[in-house]
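Troubleshooting log. The previous run stalled partway through. Resubmitting the same two chains, unchanged.
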Amino acid sequence: MRILLIHSDYLKYKTKSKTRIAEKIEDDKKEGLYENALVVFTAVEKEDETDMDTVVENAVNEIEDVFGKVGAKVVAIYPYAHLSSSLSSPDAAKKILTNMESKLDENGINVKRVPFGWYKSFEVSCKGHPLSELSRTITTEKVVIEDNKVVVTPVAESEFYILHEGEIVGTDEFSYAEDDFKKLVEYELGIMKSSGEEPPHVKLMREKKLADYEPSADIGHLRWYPKGRLIRDLLSAYVYNLVTERGAMPVETPIMYDLADDAIRVHAEKFGERQYRMATKNKELMLRYACCFGAFRVLSDSFLTWKNLPVGIYELSTYSFRLEKKGEVVGLKRLRGFTMPDLHTVCVDIDQAMDEFDEQITMCKQTGVDLDVNYEVIMRATKEFFDENKDWVYSAANKIGKPVLLEILPERKHYWVAKMDFAAIDYLGRPIENPTIQIDVESGERFGITFINSEEEEINPIIIHCSPTGSIERVICSLLEKSAVDKKDKPPMLPVWLIPTQVRIIPIAERHIEKSEQVAQLLKNQNIRVDIDDRHETVGKKIRNAGGEWAPYVIVIGDRELEEGPLTVNIRETNEKLSMKIDELVLKIHNETKDMPFRKLPLPVKLANRVSF
RNA sequence: GCCUCAGUGGCUCAGGGGUAGAGCGAUGCCUUGGUAAGGCAUAGGCCGGGGGUUCAAAUCCCCCCUGAGGCUCCA
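Second attempt completed without errors. Output:
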């Protein structure tokens, strides 16, 4: 429910004509004049229908609070549909508005309600003091009043443990050997102190010309420059290969959905206000915040039998949209538009889901190796699930090979009963939630997904949600944060398969450019991204610039190299100058990029021709 | 969304009611060179946007936008 509160000198209204949904009214309600009134313009929304009593209660509390503060004489409830683009049914609205009226009345407040469903003229004279114009969003969340303060009803709290080598211990009793794990636990338990610094990846993503803010879009939507786009493409190809090799089938589904579809609406409403919504002429649409919608619709329209299962449907959501709060959006870590690899695996039952989950743990772990990022892991389960499947939870945690934080939730709040979150730890010691695996026990039924079991019965399957890397943006975030950590004791780098310039060739004088081009062509033919710094600068400066671009290999070509023979190659990682033949360099790079995807350099080979972004 | 702080050339920043500044970068010229910044010159600014105060606003005040930190949140 949305309300707009106006403290007015007076409200004056007059009914003009009925709409189809008009309520019946007595003649004395056809017009009205209320002086010193707190006018409550109210739009009742779809989600309010799920818990009308709570909405009424919350709204009444809010109104009474403001009423008391501004010292108005009367509350005038004014139905005003234009505050929301997601309206409830007229019947529900009428009921809620009437209930608000009687509740306020019971509490001894002089309350009037302006008729619903009529075209009306009105005049309102706003007093204009600081509290005279307020808007509020009222939700179905239960609140209690305590010491005059509104407090969200405390839900029973989660319990936290550490699982390690088959043992379960309290978070206090565990002796933390690994720094990153300790940070993760402190963060999860809310005992980490903030340092107040800016995370380094934000500066890096701009400095390295990967991505930048786009002030002309909404907050949290980025522009990507060629180098950033290249890395995104490589990561996308990487995940595609990873999941298809394990049998998943890629699909592509729409980015927006019609809220008239019940299953879509219920699933969407769980996400509350954090959605982008748009109204077209006849439809109320939402932008997807994950691939679930499309995947579930594909699955519910497919014929599945127990022989097919488990089966995976994969999509890379370019983009998913979440209307995160302004203050929460930061760099690559938290965006309003992001790209999420999303794998949905249909399983016949919870046992098969657990087996499949085990496979996916292996897959998620592998991404940490391929990306060269350290993950710390949190396993979460509802109390009920944990009690029934203790052995499996222990063994799943054991697959991580190091301590795992375990959260046990007293009851199921979400669609999942068990999940595993993999987090990289940023420069400031805070987790970046990346891969995730979740066992979903709810969506199969909600979206009408069924399979035929061996007894020819139609059954709702268990579905596993998995993002093997987490969002592409967060992967890049983790890589940049890691480089900032590394900077303390070694040169910051990206994995060789991801860095835009793998080999930088520096000709000393113009007469060395031709030879540089020949070397570049040989490397290019071997699927290596190579470029030539042909600018009129000193060798020292070009070396410095190559370092600034994190080029892992730099070759200087001068008179000595004009003859056939070995090249001198600067190796960034070790800061060595090695004499090697081209073939040796090719072999070294191929070894380092083995089994990883390749894309060509999306920039002019010669630096003199490049646009500077 | 709330609280605090910030926005001056492409970048990093100085200035602080009365000619708009520096370094880096860019461009041009000189230098044709051997491993982390060669020299000289030039261009580039509605001082985030809009209102107000003032003879005069980049500077003071108000609103908005954008960014940072914190709070909250991340299904």
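Takeaways: The longest helix of chain A spans residues 350-371. Chain A has a mean pLDDT of 89.
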